[in-house]
Amino acid sequence: MSGPTDKGGKHSMTVSRRHFLQAISIAAAGATMLQWGAPGVQAQAAASDPNLHLLNRLTYGPRPEDVARIHAIGYEAFLDEQLNPQQIDDSHMDSILLPFGLLKLDRHALYGLDDAYFRSYQALIGAMISRAVYSKRQLLERMVEFWADHFNVAGDDSKPDQVGYQRDAIRANALGNFRALVLATARHPALLYYLDNAYNIAEHPNENYARELLELH
């Protein structure tokens, strides 16, 4: 996928640090909507209401619209809906995610950006927070976060590669087949580089990724 280019030939995006901080501020403000009552009240309510218990387990916290939805369609239907996120109309997220458009770029385009490392990092964080707060596909977002932590790729060295890693390996398989998820992460440059498989050659074997795969994954 190619993006717009500036006069220097590098891909140019319109997102500035100011726009990023504005987007994060909006998301943070929206996060306050996820708080409803004191923790003790939440626990008591969830214990007596299976719907609230399910929302606490599947989502980032019961929002008014989630409570209304589960009461309207029922426990089983809500669970089935969350397990099949492609059935959920989440088109309102298109405008919310506009400031993080570089998440759609391929690896070549990302490395052509000015300040690619910082901009990849801010887009990943900003989109994650925005999706957690505003997306209707709550279970998908929680599973993306879970698997990204489980198949962790850390460090600033691979931030541009993490865009494709989280999009094509993690998000694409977050609610799918575990074998497919493992294979997708195992074949992605971000994880292979992070766990030193780039240096694994016959003359000098590096077993870091192999140990990680057998012990943790």
Give a summary of the structure in a few sentences.
The chain has helices spanning 17-31, 39-48, 50-58, 64-73, 75-83, 93-96, 107-111, 116-134, 138-150, 159-170, 178-186, 189-194, 208-215. It is mainly α and 217 residues long.
Rounded to the nearest angstrom, the distance between the terminal CA atoms is: 31 Å
Rg estimate, integer Å? 20 Å
Helix content: 55-70%
Number of helices: 13
- pLDDT under 50 segments (min length 5)? 1-14
pLDDT average, as an integer?
A: 83
User: Oligomeric status of the shown chains?
Assistant: single chain
- Topology as a string of helices (H) and strands (E): HHHHHHHHHHHHH
How many structural domains are formed by the residues?
1
Dominant shape: globular
Please provide a written account of the structure.
By secondary structure, the chain is an all-alpha fold. The protein has one domain. It is 59% helix and 0% strand. Helix 2 (39-48) packs across helix 3 (50-58), helix 4 (64-73) crosses helix 5 and helix 8 runs parallel beside helix 10.
List keywords for this structure.
disordered N terminus, mainly alpha, 217 residues
Topology:
Blueprint: H1 17-31, H2 39-48, H3 50-58, H4 64-73, H5 75-83, H6 93-96, H7 107-111, H8 116-134, H9 138-150, H10 159-170, H11 178-186, H12 189-194, H13 208-215
